[in-house]
Write a structure and sequence with these properties.
Elements lengths: L11 H9 L11 E2 L11 H9 L14 H15 L11 E4 L2 H12 L8 E6 L4 H8 L3 E6 L15 H4 L2 E7 L11 H14 L2 E5 L16 H7 L8 E6 H4 L8 E5 L1 H14 L5 H11 L3 H22 L12 E2 L7 H12 L1 E2 L1 E2 L13 E4 L4 H16 L4
Parallel strand pairs: 1-10, 3-4, 3-5, 5-6, 6-7
Antiparallel strand pairs: 2-8, 7-8, 9-12, 11-12
Helix pairs in contact: 2-11, 3-11, 4-5, 4-10, 7-8, 12-14
The structure holds pyridoxal-5'-phosphate.
Amino acid sequence: MNPDLLRLQAYPFERLAALKAGVTPPAHLAHIALSIGEPKHAPPAFVLEVLRDSLAGVGSYPATAGLPELRAACASWLQRRFSLPAERISASQVLPVNGTREALFAIAQAVVDRSRPGALVAMPNPFYQIYEGAALLAGAEPLFIDTPAERGFLPDLDAVPAATWDRVQLLYLCSPGNPAGAVMSVAHWRRALELAERHDFIIAADECYAELYPDEAAPPPSLLNAALAAGHSGFERCIVFHSLSKRSSLPGLRSGFVAGDQQLLGKFLLYRTYHGSAMPEPTQRASIAAWNDDAHVRANRALYREKFARVLPILRECLPVSAPEGGFYLWPEVGGDDAAFTRELFAATHVTVVPGSYLSRGSAGTGRVRISLVASVDECVEAAHRIASFVKGRTP
Ligand SMILES: Cc1ncc(COP(=O)(O)O)c(C=O)c1O
């Protein structure tokens, strides 16, 4: 067996299940899961219709590069969403992926050069655990960069010594971030790009929450915006990851795409061809419909906005909690042992959240919990009331 498999940590939800094992929550209260980041809004009906109408497509093998129409739909969404000039981003700079998760994992396998000693793959901390597993199975060591509250929950890139950057081959960044929802400005992205150029590494920008933001007039920028602003017209060293899971509430469709540096994408396509990562044609056809429509995404954002507006005043009575700059998570400090808080909250209220320490290494997430506002508005409000009365009645 590959000994690196032994280095993989238990997934946060496995640890959460173990934490809750043996606890009997009040039977009269329905369970409300604010733990997993799985959108629960209804998938857009028109996308499901296209999916149904395209089922005959399973009669042929799909190409790993995807249908030209899908790549074109992704490119024109990038142009619309990030105001990118059409001459800068085209279908040839896009590859479909089966959700960003598999692609975020696969990119490390494709780019890490194991023959270079001391290979590092850098990532924010707390972080999406796939980055760590990807680094380990690629034969690299993960380098965790803390994202302290004092720095707006963004990774403190300047805290990493130059000699350490020299060993970094791949840097994962996530904006809006999971779990704190922090957004990288163009200036932040440019700082990362400067480091990538100076120390010769690739940036994997996980932008799967890019469509969930509070202010319609201020959408979060992409690494691609920063690359163009820095004069990197071919998006050199950049690869961005986008998904329909959160944008269109289609987590089960397993559809996303990557875009950026064409040379890098060429190598990634080669890797993916061998790995067998082609997207089934019905999924591709449904994805085209989803990427071509923005109205359902505006409605989706409005629903999240309503949840934050209803939930925050209730939670603020008992917890220091602020609205995120993007995404659908709250990341409050709960004081002390976040795992004990989570377990006791479940025992008292039948509400599940995730301990911050399960989403991080070292002490980066300790003392916080992640509350995922994915359930319906009514369930989120009900959960907020239960959390508030639990916190008020709790003796730490
Ligand atoms: C930060 C982050 N990246 C990537 C993903 C994967 O999303 P998907 O594979 O559905 O695109 C998630 C899912 O929760 C996430 O939180």
